């Protein structure tokens, strides 16, 4: 295996370990009722305004994630990460 392939594999493993850690923190910080299935959680129905905000947020989230990825790729291509350190 070439040194470059080993470096890529190590970087990928570090990234996955960091992602697993962030996912663990997110699960710890999330309230228990948010993890329950909708049929198991007995709650009062949402108001119209609040449910509209939730649906709007869920619709916008993929676009925000794509925009963040494009920004990160653009920044990496310019080499800002190396200059910032």
List the helices and strands and how they pair.
Layout: H1 3-29, H2 32-35, H3 48-78, H4 80-84
Transmembrane segments: 52-74
Keywords: Membrane, Transmembrane, Transmembrane helix
Organism: Hyalangium rubrum
How would you describe this structure to a colleague?
With 85 residues, the chain is mostly helical. The protein contains four helices and no strands.
Quick take:
The chain has 85 residues and is an all-alpha fold.
Main features:
mainly alpha, Lipoprotein, membrane, 85 residues, 4 helices, TAT_signal
Arithmetic mean of pLDDT: 79
Radius of gyration: 20 Å
Helix segment count?
Answer: 4
Give helix and strand order, one letter per element, not per position.
HHHH
Major sheet: size, sense and barrel closure? Answer: none
Name the beta content range.
Answer: under 5%
Fraction of residues in H or I helices: over 70%
Oligomer: single chain
* N-to-C CA distance: 30 Å
Structural class: mainly alpha
**Low-pLDDT sequence parts:** none
Beta strands, count:
0
- Identify the overall geometry: elongated
InterPro entries: TAT_signal
Keywords: Membrane, Transmembrane, Transmembrane helix
Organism: Hyalangium rubrum
Transmembrane segments: 52-74
